[in-house]
């Protein structure tokens, strides 16, 4: 089953304007599928650099690229050939001088730190980035949202024949990242230590990050914990939600909140196999907040800034969006059929003066819960974002 992806149109638009486009995202998120859809619409050549036979074609990269100047060249798993960036720069400049300005190279990668560094240095001014997220609620039927929350948005997990098969896929995905991909893409880290850290983040989904507390539990320094967190964020597996720091005379919480980005991976790390187990697990509230937050962030217009707001006095807004040109949204997330905002939400809104206020809850209907504050379901707020 092929699920139409929201990012396809954005990817086509970027290729129409830029010489090279980097499509980034964790493994198995659907980057290759999207690239094949692009390749069916224009002359293209595709190399999977995981395959020795395809890597061999770049043994003399200048000869290969010279023979495909009239095609879109798609390079998958680009971290396998990091030295190619400087050569791509030369070919981009040559093709520009010949009158071609866009749509030359599509680079797919798992967002390794080396990939970002190499491309930033070698292709500055020549490349645009697009992040492919896991499946979002607006890419599926409304009746499937609970399944998306439980299984997460990796297509193979979401489309599995049953919950057991989905959980098995996610557990193998975690094992593969720990044993194969992290050693390949990042610094040498003991797999078992990183697994324990990842599980601890899942247990504390959406909580304020305290490196010292994690370090004590793992028997490592807070500085080392910070490096572990940076690596998981670089691989697009974990998100740090930064505090929103307006110019107000109040004591603000300045530690980030941390989420495992895919809720299905959260549940696999905690061995939550089905819907009933999820509803009875202590992480259910944090899991729902992470699920909603990630959907909203992934569907926000380009250039949107986001964070959360919390003061020492109790004012709190779960998610703040600053959407160009001058929209400021305050969002509270409630896993309740009766979504009543907390007093702290209104205090936070008095500080920030948002242009729109929402309470996102698991239902479908939209209705007012307070003055200029609407309760709205996840599909509804994503529709509001798409209007922008």
Please provide a written account of the structure.
The chain has 388 residues and is of the alpha/beta class. The chain folds into two domains: 7-131, Rossmann fold (3-Layer(aba) Sandwich); 137-387, no CATH class. The chain contains 17 helices and 14 strands. It has helices at residues 7-17, 31-39, 52-56, 61-66, 84-97, 113-122, 145-151, 155-158, 163-185, 191-203, 211-218, 222-234, 263-269, 275-279, 284-299, 343-352, 378-387, and strands at residues 20-24, 44-48, 72-76, 105-109, 127-131, 207-208, 238-241, 257-260, 305-310, 316-323, 327-333, 356-361, 367-370, 373-377. It has a six-stranded mixed beta sheet with strand order 9-10-11-12-14-13. A hairpin with a 2-residue loop joins strand 13 (367-370) and strand 14 (373-377). The longest helix has 23 residues, at 163-185. It is globular. The mean pLDDT is 91.
Q: How many helices does DSSP assign? A: 17
Low-confidence stretches: none
The portion of residues assigned to helices is: 40-55%
Q: Measure the end-to-end span.
A: 30 Å
Q: What is the gyration radius calculated from CA atoms?
A: 22 Å
Let me know the largest β-sheet.
Answer: 6 strands, mixed
> Which outline best applies?
globular
How much β-strand is present in the residues? 15-25%
Structural class per helix/strand content?
alpha/beta
- What is the tally of beta strands? 14
Average pLDDT number: 91
Our count of domains comes out at 2
Order of neighbouring strands in the sheet with most strands: 9-10-11-12-14-13
């Amino acid at each position: 089953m092929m699920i139409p992806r929201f990012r396809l149109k954005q990817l086509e638009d970027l290729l129409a304007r830029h010489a090279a486009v980097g499509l980034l995202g964790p493994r198995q998120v659907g980057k290759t599928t999207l690239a094949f859809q692009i390749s069916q619409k224009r002359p293209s050549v595709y190399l999977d650099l995981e395959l020795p036979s395809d890597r061999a074609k770049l043994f003399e990269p200048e000869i290969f690229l010279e023979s495909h100047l009239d095609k879109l060249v798609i390079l998958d798993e680009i971290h396998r050939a990091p030295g190619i960036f400087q050569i791509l720069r030369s070919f981009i400049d040559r093709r520009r001088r010949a009158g071609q300005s866009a749509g030359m190279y599509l680079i797919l990668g798992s967002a390794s730190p080396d990939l970002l560094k190499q491309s930033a240095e070698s292709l500055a001014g020549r490349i645009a980035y697009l992040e492919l997220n896991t499946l979002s609620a607006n890419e599926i039927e409304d009746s499937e949202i609970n399944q998306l929350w439980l299984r997460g948005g990796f297509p193979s997990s979401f489309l599995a024949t049953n919950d057991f098969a989905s959980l098995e896929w996610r557990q193998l995905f975690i094992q593969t990242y720990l044993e194969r991909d992290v050693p390949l893409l990042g610094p040498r880290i003991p797999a078992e230590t990183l697994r324990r850290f990842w599980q601890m983040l899942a247990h504390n989904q959406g909580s304020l990050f305290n490196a010292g507390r994690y370090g004590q539990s793992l028997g490592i320094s807070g500085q080392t914990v910070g490096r572990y967190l940076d690596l998981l964020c670089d691989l697009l597996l974990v998100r740090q939600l930064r505090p929103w720091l307006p110019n107000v005379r109040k004591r603000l919480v300045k530690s980030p909140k941390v989420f495992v980005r895919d809720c299905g991976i959260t549940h696999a790390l905690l061995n939550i196999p089905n819907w009933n187990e999820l509803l009875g697990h202590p992480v259910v509230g944090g899991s729902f907040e992470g699920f909603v937050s990630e959907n909203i962030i992934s569907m926000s217009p380009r250039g949107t800034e986001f964070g959360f707001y919390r003061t020492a006095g109790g004012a709190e807004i779960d998610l703040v969006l600053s959407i160009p040109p001058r929209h400021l949204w305050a969002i509270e997330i409630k896993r309740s059929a009766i979504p009543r905002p907390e007093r702290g939400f209104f205090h936070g809104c008095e500080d920030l003066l948002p242009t729109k206020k929402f309470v996102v809850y698991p239902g479908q209907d939209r209705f007012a819960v307070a003055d200029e504050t609407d309760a709205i379901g996840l599909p509804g707020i994503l529709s509001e974002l798409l209007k922008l």
